[in-house]
Amino acid sequence: MDKEQLKIQMMDYLSGSMHEDGMKEFEKLLQDSPGLQSEMQALMDTWDMVGNLKTPEPSEAMDTAFFDMLSNEMDKQHQKKASKKFPLWLWPFPRAQWVFGLLLLGLGIAVGYFLNSKSEEIPVDNVVVNEETESVRQKLVLTLLEQPSANQRLQGVSEANKFESADEIVIKALLQTLNEDSNVNVRLAAIESLTNYVDHPIVRQGLVQSIPNQESPILQITLANLMVALQEKASIEPFRQLLQERTLDTTVQKKIKNSIESII
Amino acid sequence: MLDLTDDMLMLKVKSGDLDKLGLLYERHKKRLFGFFYNLGNNPSVSEDLVQNVFVRMLKYRSSYAGNGSFAAWMFRMARNVNYDYHKKAAKNKIAVGTDPEDVHVETDTFSEKVDMEDKAYQIKRAMAQLPDEKRELLVLSKYREMKFKEIGETIGCSEGAAKVRVHRALKELRNIFLQLETV
Question: Hey, which of A27, A214, A250, B105 has its CA 20 to 30 A from B50?
């Protein structure tokens, strides 16, 4: 038998990978050859000793290190997958630009939402309630301004200040009060109230027209100050008419003259 | 999951199912650790080298064809990892494996040495004196579940050649062992 072939057979016998027939044949060969038998025995002993080499158990730190490494790799893989999902047709632009753009868009939406929430439409229920309140207040103002008591009429003017927007009926009532009320304080309060609506043409016109009707110096000076503040040129002619009044207070005269010069 | 073969698991890892590597690790960590340890590395280094094998498996998973034995592929990587480590250690003048006998004595505590059976101690010393390739062959064949065909695949030779080489390595080990006993 070839020496190499014999070695192969010895290893097959040693490792138990020999077929039954081959094993019997090889055992017969061993019996017939004491030299081969002792060589085989030595080989088996050495094989067993190698097999019995003691190996310590690996520590838990090895497991920890491995699973940390694996976990990191899996995270990297997920990140790669996520980045691959970025639409390729958007690729001509740098990714940072897209991120910045999206951030700006988000910021714009947030600001828009914040600003819009301030001018939000008032719910229908609130509008109805407000309309009802304005209507009741209008009636209250008109009623109070007709009262004989100056206090109540002052209260009426005070109520008129609570209107959120100019109410034509109330404005007319206030102008009427300014021209006709017997109490100076009520008339002054009416001027003060009307200054809330000076952008309204009827108010300006009414104020100008009331100038010649005023006899109280306080009211005349208040109107003169107001017309200067408004730079209302239409008031010059009524003021000039007023200057022709002989009973006009000298202080008021000077004030009106100064006012006319300021307006011109 | 336990029914999945190593080959099937590695193919899953290759296709991106990385957590399957955890199962392969659990199955083979002790064998790999023993492989490195019995090649003369201390336990700490052996653990690092086991880790390196699995890092390489991940790195080169796309090269796994699945047409051979997984164990052979794994131990081929393990051999390369061991070779690279010792090459680097030699370059950096780290005293690992330069004197196999010393390395083994250093890894065992005094009490272990005292308790260790003479034969086991001597065979360990004899192993340390074997040339690297032969020691590697014997360590591979120590894992009896590894067939000669797989050993051949691992070291790059035929099954028959693997048997002959293991036979020679055993004979040489026996001679060293007997020499150590007579000293």
Answer: B105
DSSP string, B7-27: HHHHHHHHTT-TTHHHHHHHH
Residues of A in contact with B55 (CB under 8 A): 69
For domain B99-183, give the CATH number. 1.10.10.10
Return the sign of the alpha-carbon dihedral for residues B72, B74, B75, B79: positive
> Full-prediction pTM beyond 0.90?
no
Question: Domain B1-96 adopts which CATH fold?
Answer: Rna Polymerase Sigma Factor; Chain: A (1.10.1740)
Tokens representing residue B167 in the block = 């036979």
| CB contact at 8 A, A178 and A190 | yes
Do B135 and B127 form a contact (C-beta atoms < 8 A)? yes
How large is the ipTM? 0.81
Per-residue pLDDT of chain B (183 residues), as tens digits, is 557 899 999 999 999 889 899 999 999 999 999 999 999 899 999 999 999 999 999 999 998 988 888 999 999 999 999 999 998 888 876 655 434 444 444 445 555 555 556 778 888 889 999 999 999 999 998 876 788 999 999 999 999 999 999 999 999 999 999 988 776
- Is A38 within 8 Å of chain B by CB? no
**Residue count of chain B:** 183
Residues of B whose CB is below 8 A from A50: 123, 127, 138, 141-142, 170, 173
- B94 to chain A nearest CA, in Å? 22
Instruction: Considering chain B, tell me which residue range(s) the CATH 1.10.10.10 domain(s) occupy.
Output: 99-183
Are A111 and A130 in contact, with CB atoms under 8 Å apart? no
